[in-house]
Amino acid sequence: MAVNGDSRARWRYMDHILTRPGAYTDPEWGEGIIGTLENAKVLVIGAGGLGCEILKNLALSGFKSIDVIDMDTIDVSNLNRQFLFRQSDVGKPKASVAADFVMKRVPGCKINAHVCKIQDKDEEFYMQFSMVICGLDSIEARRWINALLVGMVDYDNDDSLKPLIDGGTEGFKGQSRVVIPRMTSCIECQLDMHAPRAAVPLCTLATIPRQPQHCIEWAHIIKWEEERKDIQLDTDDPEHITWLYRTALKRAQEFGIQGVTYSMTQGVVKNIIPAIASTNAIIAASCCNEAFKIATSSAPALANTIPEGVDPETYDPDEEFAPAPNNYMLYTGDNSIYTFTFGHKKKPDCPVCGNLPKDLTVPGDQTLQELIESFAERPEAQLKKPSLSTGGKTLFFSSPESLRQQTEGNLRKKMRDLMEDGEEVVVTDPAFPTEFKYTIHLT
Amino acid sequence: MLKIWSMKQQQQKSEAAAGQSKKKKVTAAQLRVQKDLSELSLGSTMKTHFPNPDDILNFTLTLTPDEGLYKGGIFNFTFAISQNFPHEPPKVKCREKIYHPNIDLEGNVCLNILREDWKPVLNLNAVIVGLQFLFLEPNASDPLNKEAANDLMTDRDRFKRNVRSAMAGGSVKGESFDRVMK
């Protein structure tokens, strides 16, 4: 079969789905779906184990405009499962190698690679996409992109609402979930779904190591500080890992512990969780199917369904006892197979999506003191011991004492000297369980 | 795309802020630290110090125990909180080299809630109470400084003498300590 970039021949069978309505297609479904799919601009965050799968799946299911962002370079240990990379690619950036490979394999698909941290890009960059798919191993990065997407929603601009599809795996387990920012429970609401990193008490490491991992952690946390304090540990530097390995090995021998190896040292220090290629494939596949359904409305997607037995006419997911739409799929493969899809409810007190900033117009020559006093008149904020800050500045803290002293000088300053127009101010008070957020408009 | 939410969206339009801020926002970690800090109950034996008041994720806590074996000492702990807080615990280290069964010579602290028992529901106050407790009740069964733990377990009086001389800047078994007396 001859395939070129302009032909739909490659997608002939998929187009059977896209050109005919079915029982579950959206009522709005109609002509032009193929165009919607081809024009949807998708951002993939992460070009590692999940990222390789996601990029391949998106390209093969007809997405034609993809961006991928990853700051990492290819390590030899990635090659077993990150199948877009070859031995000769070791040391090169993951994002660009992955993009080039998929573009070569699927003509007509355009992938832009960005070799940088997600934090290096601004809102304008993220605004161009119609959805974001994450294949990350970092909770911090997930929280960052989540907060950004929630903050970007502008109700006067439909295009500012960008579904976030998040995949994650750990050994035989994984999850995929969809967040419709502000509408459904967000990553921050679901923070407690992440298992904490198992840690061994420091004193066990220091006194009675029992496992080879304890010896490595000891070398990593205690011995490095003691002997190489002035050198910043770089877990990608073979000399550093070798030092840790030798130090750990010596300790293991002292305690008669077997099993410290170089690769175990690398694994413990870099907190590498054994990745299983097939788990990545399962999770990435479900993420991409959700992306496909969201882009084409060919079937209901996670987070975009009305729970069973609920009247769609009166359904309000924000109501206290209303069920949440199914938005979370967990996959557990370590004891036979168990999957469960459920609705994770939005947290009313979520620091990211639960409490959105209100507009507040403030005269630029008003002092911070006057602003705080004016809060006292607002019924929702009878403040007793307020603390206020912006993203980059601590405006005023009532306590602790030292911070109060350092910031009370700001009380006499004019608002225009403390912040720029349009900045967000967060007000907390021990008397209130939740915070108040205001977008300040200076006049 | 996303049909069912459009109705909901219309509804909320009027409630939400019209203009979106493009400025640097308070992160979830910062927000949580702000709440935790304003709810600290420090008492007279504890003080905070912020080298840069605009960076509330990094500060020093000064502990001056008014009872127990470490009475009269001044102990400084650095708190370094990451953007992953409260998923991850704060990193806490003792700045002085002290003689304590649960604090090693590098300042590492063995406190369960700073590592294996950390939970996001715990707050900075819990950590501070935990640190204070370490000075009131040094714990020989979870040693980080084995020598000190041994002394505490086998000869409490000798341990007391060692604490006093270490706090005065003296040495214990050839190891010299920082002077931490008021």
From TrEMBL, chain A:
UniProt keyword Heme present: no
Assigned EC number: 6.2.1.64
CDD domains in alphabetical order: Uba3_RUB (cd01488)
Compositionally skewed regions (Polar residues) per UniProt: 387-407
Catalysed conversion reaction: ATP + [NEDD8 protein] + [E1 NEDD8-activating enzyme]-L-cysteine = AMP + diphosphate + [E1 NEDD8-activating enzyme]-S-[NEDD8 protein]-yl-L-cysteine
Segments of this protein annotated with the region Disordered: 383-407
SMART domains: E2_bind
Entries under InterPro entries matching the protein: E2-binding (IPR014929), ThiF/MoeB/HesA (IPR045886), ThiF_NAD_FAD-bd (IPR000594), Ub_act_enz_dom_a_sf (IPR023318), Uba3_N (IPR030468), Ubiquitin-activating_enz (IPR035985)
Pathway: Protein modification; protein neddylation
TM stretches of this protein: none
Domain E2 binding: start-end pairs: 360-443
Reported function: Catalytic subunit of the dimeric E1 enzyme, which activates NEDD8.
The protein's name: NEDD8-activating enzyme E1 catalytic subunit
UniProtKB/TrEMBL annotation, chain B:
Gene3D superfamilies on file: Ubiquitin Conjugating Enzyme (3.10.110.10)
Active site location: 110
Disordered: region residues: 1-23
InterPro entries linked: Ub_conjugating_enzyme (IPR050113), UBC (IPR000608), UBQ-conjugating_AS (IPR023313), UBQ-conjugating_enzyme/RWD (IPR016135)
Entries under PROSITE patterns matching the protein: UBC_1 (PS00183), UBC_2 (PS50127)
Key words of the record: ATP-binding, Nucleotide-binding, Transferase, Ubl conjugation pathway
Listed Pfam families: UQ_con
CDD domains per record: UBCc_UBE2F_UBE2M
UBC core domain location: 28-172
Family listed: Belongs to the ubiquitin-conjugating enzyme family.
PANTHER family referenced in this protein's UniProt entry, alphabetically: UBIQUITIN-CONJUGATING ENZYME E2
Protein's UniProt name: Ubiquitin-conjugating enzyme E2 2
Lineage: Eukaryota, Fungi, Dikarya, Ascomycota, Pezizomycotina
